[in-house]
Amino acid sequence: MAVAELFPSHAKIHSPQLSYLSTRLSNHRRISLRPLPRTRISRVVCSVTSSQVQAPTPIQDEDFKKKPECYGVFCLTYDLKAEDETKSWKKFINIAVSGAAGMISNHLLFKLASGEVFGPDQPIALKLLGSERPFQVLEGVAMELEDALYPLLREVSIGIDPYDVFQDAEWAILNGVKPRGPGMERADLLDINGQIFSET
Questions:
Q1: Is Transcription regulation there in the keyword field (predicted)?
Q2: How many Å apart are CA 173 and CA 67, to the nearest integer?
Q3: Counting beta carbons within 10 angstroms of the beta carbon of residue 108, is it exposed (0 to 12), middle (13 to 18) or buried (19 or more)?
Q4: Are strands 124-129 and 93-98 parallel, antiparallel or unpaired?
Q5: Within a 10 A sphere around the Cβ of 127, how many other Cβ atoms?
Q6: Which domains does the chain have, with CATH numbers?
Q7: Looking at the whole model, is its pTM more than 0.85?
């Protein structure tokens, strides 16, 4: 057992006073300090033998062949089809968006995915059309949509071929236009963009 004595601290204490105080405190104020118990090392024991552990099921290649054009987590997570509907949600619709790597689409796509455009009970599948030059930007937009985890966004696919992107689309939002250059009139701009819209 360890014993500690407490001595009061005074600014000026003479030697006879110090001996008197120490004797008095040693007789009346003693504190018993008990040693701390030793810490025990915890062990984790598994009650399952190694023969009972199941190996992880490998993902079949057939699952990836069903949706070869989908992007990221949307290929693996969502398995609902367009015909399926729940009690609170409608059948999801395919929406094709051209110029998806542009600034306008960067704001519009998140409005679509959050349900502000088609309603809070309408799941959607986005099909994004870009070009070869800003294709990495288009992949970045798809990653942002993937990270946002909107519950109404059931699928995202990206591509540069308008025939593939607009196939089976129920809604088409045409954002990709050519900007007005120097010396161009508005009529020239309408002619060029009209041809772009007619092609898409």
A1: no
A2: 22
A3: middle
A4: parallel
A5: 26
A6: 69-199 (3.40.50.720)
A7: no
Give the tokens for residue 127.
């099909």
CA distance 179 to 160: 19
Residue 113 backbone phi and psi in degrees, to 5: -70, -30
Unique residue bearing structure tokens 């120097």: 182
DSSP string, 103-155: HHHHHHHHHHHHTTTT-TT--EEEEEE--STTHHHHHHHHHHHHHHT-TTEEE
Look at residue 66 and give its three-state secondary structure: helix
Q: Report helix, strand or coil for 33.
A: strand
Instruction: Read off φ and ψ for residue 150, nearest 5 degrees.
Output: -70, 130
Bridge partners (DSSP) of residue 112 are none
Q: What is the pLDDT of residues 106-139, one digit of tens each?
A: 889 999 999 999 999 999 999 998 887 778 888 9
Q: What are phi and psi of 5, to 5 degrees?
A: -105, 140
| Separation between Cα atoms, residue 74 and residue 151, nearest integer Å | 11
Q: Which two structure tokens, joined as six digits, stand for 104?
A: 């306008």
